[in-house]
Amino acid sequence: xxxxxxxxxxxxxxxxxxxxxxxxxxxxxxxxxxxxxxxxxxxxxxxxxxxxxxxxxxxxxxxxxxxxxxxxxxxxxxxxxxxxxxxxxxxxxxxxxxxxxxxxxxxxxxxxxxxxxxxxxxxxxxxxxxxxxxxxxxxxxxxxxxxxxxxxxxxxxxxxxxxxxxxxxxxxxxxxxxxxxxxxxxxxxxxxxxxxxxxxxxxxxxxxxxxxxxxxxxxxxxxxxxxxxxxxxxxxxxxxxxxxxxxxxxxxxxxxxxxxxxxxxxxxxxxxxxxxxxxxxxxxxxxxxxxxxxxxxxxxxxxxxxxxxxxxxxxxxxxxxxxxxxxxxxxxxxxxxxxxxxxxxxxxxxxxxxxxxxxxxxxxxxxxxxxxxxxxxxxxxxxxxxxxxxxxxxxxxxxxxxxxxxxxxxxxxxxxxxxxxxxxxxxxxxxxxxxxxxxxxxxxxxxxxxxxxxxxxxxxxxxxxxxxxxxxxxxxxxxxxxxxxxxxxxxxxxxxxxxxxxxxxxxxxxxxxxxxxxxxxxxxxxxxxxxxxxxxxxxxxxxxxxxxxxxxxxxxxxxxxxxxxxxxxxxxxxxxxxxxxxxxxxxxxxxxxxxxxxxxxxxxxxxxxxxxxxxxxxxxxxxxxxxxxxxxxxxxxxxxxxxxxxxxxxxxxxxxxxxxxxxxxxxxxxxxxxxxxxxxxxxxxxxxxxxxxxxxxxxxxxxxxxxxxxxxxxxxxxxxxxxxxxxxxxxxxxxxxxxxxxxxxxxxxxxxxxxxxxxxxxxxxxxxxxxxxxxxxxxxxxxxxxxxxxxxxxxxxxxxxxxxxxxxxxxxxxxxxxxxxxxxxxxxxxxxxxxxxxxxxxxxxxxxxxxxxxxxxxxxxxxxxxxxxxxxxxxxxxxxxxx
Amino acid sequence: xxxxxxxxxxxxxxxxxxxxxxxxxxxxxxxxxxxxxxxxxxxxxxxxxxxxxxxxxxxxxxxxxxxxxxxxxxxxxxxxxxxxxxxxxxxxxxxxxxxxxxxxxxxxxxxxxxxxxxxxxxxxxxxxxxxxxxxxxxxxxxxxxxxxxxxxxxxxxxxxxxxxxxxxxxxxxxxxxxxxxxxxxxxxxxxxxxxxxxxxxxxxxxxxxxxxxxxxxxxxxxxxxxxxxxxxxxxxxxxxxxxxxxxxxxxxxxxxxxxxxxxxxxxxxxxxxxxxxxxxxxxxxxxxxxxxxxxxxxxxxxxxxxxxxxxxxxxxxxxxxxxxxxxxxxxxxxxxxxxxxxxxxxxxxxxxxxxxxxxxxxxxxxxxxxxxxxxxxx
Lengths: 883, 378
Prior knowledge:
The complex is a heterodimer of chains A (about 900) and B (about 375). Chain A is of the alpha+beta class.
């Protein structure tokens, strides 16, 4: 019995080999193209997954450098009053307390690193045994260089040695520092510039506050107690007892509760900031991840096509095998097996390819994260077992799923039926109407899904809608192809000659294959179009918005390198000096702060109300006039919030929001919502005078300078630059046009990865076209051979194939653009709005789209060249002999 | 000497002074920024219980022997050091983190009956209230180790993961000023001296927690407070110091400075305090301190300490034998920190005044035993 079973298995394997594997090797180029398509699809999915994890999910905020194994962190908008450190130190618990200044410095003005001010006395003397201690090679150095503001310690990866002099740009000052020590920094992962806290406060021009206090609590209570305090107990011990009945209202800046921590000071689990940022980046990562699946969807079409072709071409063999007693299940398994093999091989090739692509992708993604979200260092790219398993499952799974339908049809082949050719296509044609009906139903579903709200901040229904659109298009494709080719056949015959007419007829004759092929290519084109429209609309919107929001003639900021969450500040005296320069009509001193609202990072900005009112054309959701809105901000606990902020936190006009500022918490009325595309995190804007009541540091982050009508821009700019260099300030000035250009550069860089993903999807589709045309040629060798035999010249054959390719491309482009338009509406008005919260005005980026479509079209036609040359090489005699 | 781990009390601070002096050599005039201890200083209490930033070095030493209600004996040490680092005009803007003084503190608990010695150390800048001395608030503190004056009472509090102290001290006598004419001379030449104040009999009570167990304790403590600028000289390599609290309510403070050549420095001195609080200065010829053979060798530092002594003060007819119930009372500085290694521990005294048997308790400090200490050279 055992023998019988093993014989059966061997027999099946043999059958699988003869029926499935041999044909694959017989057409190596076509097989290779299919595998390559899968490999690319899998590689892209894997690359984005890996890179997304490294850049957006496992990244560490730059400020976690040297932050060690602490339990709690204490933070506050505008800094924690430093007296808190003294109070904490005196608490009757064995706490390890590390107060830090946290900012950024740029070596030689261009390489930006975290700049940390640490209490080097405590670090060297008291925390020396702690795992997290700042690793001073010579602890005495901490004392040796106390009071020497020029002393810095740098990470090893920066490449300096003890005694080296380093020029460091901090905010608007460039100063020379001396390297006193070099500490190991984990290959650059913890690269930073360290100063003593006093020196850091002076270098940053911020005394009286520290940026963060890290606290490590003892495992057990003191005195050898066995009591292990709960997190809640620790929080209460550290925070202190808040006195009852104390209410801090808007104007009461600096009100201090009886507790150790002022009310506005936040005590939270260490690493919360990083967690919040990771949470914030989830949507960004999701969208890219889904975009990466496009290439795979295109790959699925190709697998479907490959297997369909196999089934059609091997109907005779299937019939024979069935007649010889093979069960339906055997045939089904055989074709699924073929697809699975292709999927597996493709995935295996895709793995290393994906890993390589991930390195590039992580750079692009972390640049975006840095520009739009948070200063961070990407985590390591980790190609773990789970990523590998996921890639294999996705690759093989997509292959099997897309092969199921043709494989099932193969299994339904009746032994006798297989003897006659041509009937398959007839059946496909019969299903055309049914598919069209389903397509329309799906389109309606898509419409419904696009109306549904976001689920937990993710536009799940939006994604579902895109899937519906893709499926609907795929199902509608046979009807579209059939209709179009029928209409075209006559027209083509008249204009391009008989070869073209033949080509068109052949496409419509092998309708199923053609429509799958068109489906694959059109999906890729649709995605390209949709994303193109989305990005183009976004870009146009931003440009229009900048017309209103970037009205000043000149912008001035500190030369330090800014990011979404870091704002080098300008010395106030310089700002005042600039305001008094001849030719300067007004300045708007903008100040940016980092705040945390509802446990999410957000921006807080203060503006000079008078300047704003005079020069700014605000753009508010309510449509009200700028002056009217800004008047409500004056001298009141009132703010305006950006559209992303309003959407993220479900805040509407007239609502009240509570912000932790300075010494206390204060409520602010939202008087309006303004359009904003500069920050996805959301921004709250208040009058500078209001902000200064809570946050007393008056240094602005940037200046908007308006010049008098009779002054010359270049003169004023020159004057400003002179004023800065006279005071030894390093600043950058931007003309209105400079600033817009720079904004667009950042914008384009942000979307670079999106373009890259589309390019891969299109590449996969074009590879598919080449493969499919090759199949067509091989399939129709009898017909082509006969044509040759009947006297057709080789150029006529080439023309025939190229026209077919051209027709395929044309059909796919038309279908793709229509489908892409539908998808772009979902992207712009549903997915983007729900993910990021901004309103984008629809815009056709005509030039870019035309260019891209032309390139794709040419690529498609060129993809027909190789199949055409194969067709020409067919030997008429041999082919006819086969008959 | 920068690498030396020797030192203590005098030496802790003196060394630190020299080390920091070296450190700040690049900065203009260091020592000259400070006053030196000169005869004729007018003491004023309670003000003089607090800090004297005009002098570079200052310390407050609390040591004591206590016993719990169930008879368990403990010794404790809580000391605060202040070392002036810079008196230069500060860079603007000034920061609360600017370092004018470095504050060190040592904490030790001797479980005399349990046979264990626990000690801890910390070094801080004053920063925004991390450590410091405030005459107006009546406080001397370093993190959560502190002394708080409440009228005549002093409350000591110190927290460590292994043990905690909460003691109330009440002085039974007026402050004693050691030396002559307000200065305790340590070396030849004006200024090589300190202003040295002691509270020699502090009735002590409070609680003490160790290994999760709380003890109610009572006993006697001693406080030394000294301030000066650079008092020792390079030939002086070590120091043995005794506080003696006798059952007849008299006290003795004795110290002996050891010279590099092995001799006892003539500036060694002592003070006798009678039951009413009257003090008598004794110069080096008026008493003797002799090790009597028994030693203890530290496994950590390999230093050998003489842990048994004989004290004689002929002028008062005193002869005392000094023993310790716990030989391992050595504070070892962890590597890289400023803290030196030294022996400071609870001792008992037995002997006679004239013919009357007498006994008492106190503290013994021995420094400079782990390595020859060379001041002013490497």
